Amino acid sequence: MRDLYEVLGVERAASQSDLKKAYRRLAQQFHPDKNPDDKSAEEKFKEAANAYQVLSDDEQRAVYDRYGFDGLRRGGGGGGPGAGFSNVEDIFSAFGDMFGDFFGGRSSGRRQPRGADLKIDLGLTFAEAVWGCTKDVKVTRDIACATCKGSGAAAGSKVETCATCRGKGQVVHAQGFFMVQSTCPQCRGAGKTIKDPCGECRGRGTMPETSTMTVTVPSGVDHGQTLRLAGKGEAISGGATGHLYVVLHVQGDERFRRDGDDILTEIPVSFVKAALGGEIEVYTLEDNCDGVATIELKPGTQPGDVMVRRGQGVPHVNAQGRGDQVIQFKVEIPKKLSARQEELLRELAGELGEEGLKSEKRGLFSRKK
Hints:
This protein is α+β, with helices and mostly antiparallel strands.
């Protein structure tokens, strides 16, 4: 993936004005209307738009400057160029105002209307978020009317261009010294009129439907992130279908604490094993987060000491590799001792030259709570 500044051909210190000029130049050069059926030009057109989308946003630009693409991926909300524009129509929708003053054809006229975007919530277990899954969700939305195929017109009837706005969907009128553009009152922005509407949808071109969709959740997602399902939102007569946004809600797991793609696991260790060393078992993310691994505990391990298992954390979203697993040792002190255990500890204390211990009558651990 190329550096975003390199894509636009600007220095890292470029101003917003410089970024806009560079993007306009590239968009003009690789515009689909100027390069019909040229997949290479279309990809460059999308690449430039994705780069400008990030760098024109001060917050995203600051994250990218400091952390690069990893920072954008970890930012959530579908951020980063990998989650940017997937087709040119989305680019026209986002930057249509910029295109209008120097592009001809479809981007300089009335933008194609798009159906409403929808948002749903999706709950995931910790393991489902780590390793990915497929989930079925129910969505109620408007889809194209099957009777009129989304045109809104009855069989044999024609859809006519609105005479008031001449198909633009917008009308311009004077308001004092200014010219104001507003939605056409005759066609309500559709740019067309229907004399004989479809009896099924009453001319709307759409009908409500509740259906089950399968959502593919990639491995490594986190709580609060959003997946975009392009074209799975609501339909609109004569326009493109909106998008469906799936907001993820991930349950916690008491065995693992997540920080980005790294995880922290606290492991209790007896004070004897901490002093002498030995083998201990730790929880891992393998086997759908129910895995176990044996690690070597070094003699003299102190409370709070950590061991890092490189590449054993959460998989990176849509990228190779994984984060790390950090094992933190929690040394436990027994609250009660048998007479023999207390005797052995006192012998050890003598060997170590410990002073100021509680008398044998009360004992170090014999105090009542």
